C-alpha cells in the first residue's frame, strides 16, 4: 500500500468557485484514490490560502514551508508527496511572480528530503505547476490583480526546478483550466481531469 500526501492550497482542499467546498468524493485527491484503488491511501492536506514560503498578514498558518515537516511526520511514512502550491503566492500583497513561487517549491523539496527523526525514508516527489489563472472575478479580482500574466510562467519555472531536483513533474495547465466563475478555482471537471492526469503519471510507479 502506498501513502500519498497531497500538499496544496484551496485547489487541493476542494474550494467551489466563489464559495463553499465540494463533497469529498468530488475533490481531486479522492478521485485519484478511487482510480488507484482502496489498497492505497491518498491524503488531502490542502488548505485554502496556503503559500509556498510566505507568511500571509491576513491569514494565519498559511506558510507551506513552516508546516511541511509536521505534515510528513503526522502522516508518515509518506511514499509519494504531491506538491501543488504557488497560486496564492501571486496575490497582489506578496508582490512576487512565478519564478519566486518555483523557488519556494524548491525549498519545500529540500525540506522534504531532510533526514527524519523517525527514520522515515524521504518521499518520492511529484510537483504540479498550478493552472494558469484566468481573468479573476468576484472576490478573487482584487487579491489576484496582475496574477493572470504572472501565472503564464508557472510551467517554465516549475519545470526547471523539478528537472534540477529530479522530481516528477506535471503541468496542470496542459490538462485543465480554472472555472470561468472566478478564474482561479477548479470546477468538478477540472478536479476529475487533474486526478486522471496524475493517475496516468504515477500508476506504473505506485508500487513504492
TrEMBL record:
It holds the Pfam family Lipase_GDSL_2. Coiled coil: none annotated. It comes from the Bacteria. Residues 6-192 form the SGNH hydrolase-type esterase domain. GO terms for molecular function: hydrolase activity, acting on ester bonds. This is Lipolytic protein G-D-S-L family.
Amino acid at each position: 500500500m502506498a501513502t500519498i500526501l497531497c500538499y496544496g492550497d484551496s485547489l487541493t482542499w476542494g474550494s467551489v468557485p466563489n464559495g463553499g467546498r465540494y463533497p469529498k468524493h468530488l475533490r481531486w485527491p479522492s478521485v485519484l484514490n478511487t482510480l488507484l484503488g482502496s489498497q492505497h491511501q491518498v491524503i488531502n492536506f490542502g488548505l485554502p490560502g496556503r503559500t509556498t514560503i510566505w507568511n500571509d498578514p491576513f491569514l494565519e498558518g498559511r506558510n507551506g514551508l513552516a508546516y511541511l515537516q509536521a505534515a510528513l511526520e503526522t502522516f508518515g511514512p509518506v511514499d509519494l508527496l504531491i506538491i501543488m502550491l504557488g497560486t496564492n503566492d501571486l496575490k497582489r500583497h506578496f508582490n512576487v511572480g512565478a519564478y519566486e513561487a518555483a523557488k519556494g517549491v524548491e525549498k519545500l523539496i529540500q525540506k522534504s528530503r531532510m533526514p527524519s527523526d523517525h527514520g522515515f525514508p524521504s518521499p518520492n516527489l511529484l510537483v504540479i505547476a498550478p493552472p494558469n489563472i484566468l481573468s479573476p472575478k468576484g472576490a478573487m479580482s482584487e487579491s489576484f490583480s496582475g496574477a493572470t500574466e504572472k501565472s503564464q510562467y508557472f510551467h517554465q519555472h516549475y519545470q526547471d526546478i523539478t528537472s534540477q531536483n529530479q522530481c516528477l513533474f506535471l503541468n496542470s495547465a496542459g490538462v485543465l483550466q480554472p472555472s470561468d466563475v472566478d478564474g482561479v478555482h477548479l470546477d468538478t471537471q477540472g478536479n476529475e481531469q487533474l486526478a486522471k492526469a496524475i493517475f496516468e503519471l504515477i500508476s506504473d510507479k505506485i508500487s513504492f
